[in-house]
Automatic annotation (TrEMBL):
Keywords: Heme, Iron, Metal-binding, Monooxygenase, Oxidoreductase. This is Cytochrome P450. SUPFAM superfamilies: Cytochrome P450. Belongs to the cytochrome P450 family. It comes from the Bacteria. The lineage of its organism: Bacteria, Bacillati, Actinomycetota, Actinomycetes, Micromonosporales. Gene3D superfamilies: Cytochrome P450. It comes from Micromonospora parva. The keyword Coiled coil does not apply. It holds the Pfam family p450.
Length: 430
């Protein structure tokens, strides 16, 4: 079985490749070009995500492709302890408790603690877009990537002035781990990653040295540890910040871009959302299933394990194809049809499953819901540009738009409700 995540075919239509993999009766496949075992069926991916004892996380953040010696020597200087995505017991349960105590992760807490932040940032960005009446904009940098990064900076207590560096470092981490950069680029990205880690260490060190702590995440984490390294070490606080500055915005940026793409690809969908914001949660949920921001995730087996009709040996790296699992006909009716009101939409695995279920799922849903609703109500005439040519960053795990060009069109009487009837019915029908 071959899977080239950097091919034009895969980047254009990964679902076409997933269908061929899902149709194979074996259930799991070894991809020689990647040196990875591919697990694609919903039941198998769900099981692997839940069984951290068999499918461990220790190599999750190790680059998919072997890096050159010069880049490796830089990476080895990064002494960030594993805390979340790359952690296993006994570390992961302890650091997960720390996250649950210091980072809002239920719908009620997320709204209470982060709702005002999200709404302020949404208003800021929507107003900026609305002021560009008649212009062509790129919704990826101008909205989808900007919003979640600004929100996570507010949550962590990081100044807006650092947004450019953090975006560059975060993009570099993803490219280094799940991309295929050449040796010179590997060295540059590794050096950026080392700078990123030192930056996070300094964020924490300044708070420790000053003794002044506020209500931001880093301050909460330091208060939670209460000078007890058995609860959480200072380097672990820096590592949590390091992880949140990447995971806290990259996946939500992907969700926003994919949702906007799905909503704007048919003007009737966008008009329906503008007319009835109550449609947005279901629309976001179906986007998570149909076009997840992360369509593959890495695990390593700790023992021989049978998946379908195949035995995967111990020590094998596995790529859990979340995007394929979300299109599995055994789990979803008519899986290749975008239908916001399908009864099985909640079965998607885009936030993971089990002990590593995404701690930021509630925040991502809140951001997407508020952002899409407000943007549609303010700019109901937003339209994708006719010359749209979709392209995606080449990557094993993250599916991210390079651009999403649109035209800002605000009717003179934009405060009037959108005409009711056909548009809403169209969205309800998918």
């Amino acid at each position: 079985m071959r899977l080239n995540p950097f091919s034009r075919v895969y980047l254009t239509d990964p679902a076409g490749v997933w269908r061929r993999i899902l149709d194979d009766p074996a259930g799991a496949h070894y991809a020689e070009d990647l040196d990875l075992w591919l697990i694609s069926r919903h039941a198998h991916v769900r099981r692997a995500l839940a069984d951290a004892a068999t499918f461990a996380n220790a190599l999750t953040l190790v680059p998919v492709y072997e890096v050159c010696p010069a880049a490796l020597s830089v990476i080895m200087q990064i002494d960030a302890p594993p805390t979340t995505a790359a952690a296993d017991p006994p570390t992961h349960p302890r650091t997960r408790r720390a996250l649950r105590a210091t980072f809002a992760n239920t719908a009620e807490r997320v709204e209470a603690e982060y709702g005002a932040i999200v709404r302020r940032r949404v208003e800021q960005l929507v107003s900026r877009l609305a002021a560009r009446q008649g212009e062509q904009v790129d919704l990826v940098p101008d909205f989808a990537t900007e919003l979640p990064l600004l929100v996570v900076l507010d949550i962590l207590g990081v100044p807006d002035a650092d947004i450019g560096r953090i975006r560059s470092w975060a993009d570099g981490q993803i490219a280094l781990i799940w991309g295929q950069p050449d040796p010179a680029e590997q060295v540059r990205l590794a050096q950026g990653l080392l700078e990123f880690w030192h930056y996070c260490e300094e964020l924490v060190r300044r708070r420790v040295d000053s003794g002044q702590q506020g209500d931001d995440f880093i301050s909460r984490a330091l208060t939670y540890r209460d000078d007890d390294d058995s609860v959480l070490t200072v380097p672990e606080v820096a590592s949590l910040a390091f992880n949140l500055l990447v995971a806290g915005h990259e996946t939500t940026a992907g969700l926003l871009a994919h949702t906007l793409d799905q909503a704007l690809s048919d003007p009737r969908r966008w008009s329906a959302i503008a007319e009835d914001p109550g449609l947005v949660p279901a629309f976001v949920a179906e986007t998570l299933r149909f076009a997840p921001a992360i369509d593959g995730w890495l695990r390593v087996t700790t023992r021989d394990v049978t998946v379908g009709a195949v035995t995967i040996p111990a020590g094998a790296r596995c790529l859990l194809l979340i995007g394929a699992a979300n299109r599995d006909p055994a789990a979803f009716q008519d899986p290749d049809r975008f239908d916001p009101h399908r009864p099985d939409v909640g079965n998607h695995l885009s936030f993971g499953h089990g002990p590593h279920f995404c701690i930021g799922a509630g925040l991502a849903r809140l951001e997407a819901g508020i952002a899409i609703s407000r943007l549609a109500q303010t700019i109901p005439g937003l339209r994708l540009s006719p010359e749209q040519h979709r392209s995606y960053k080449p990557n094993v795990a993250f599916r991210a738009h390079r651009r999403l060009l649109a035209t800002i069109d605000i009717p003179a009487s934009s405060d009037e409700p959108v005409a009711r009837g056909g548009a809403t019915a169209e969205v309800r029908a998918g």
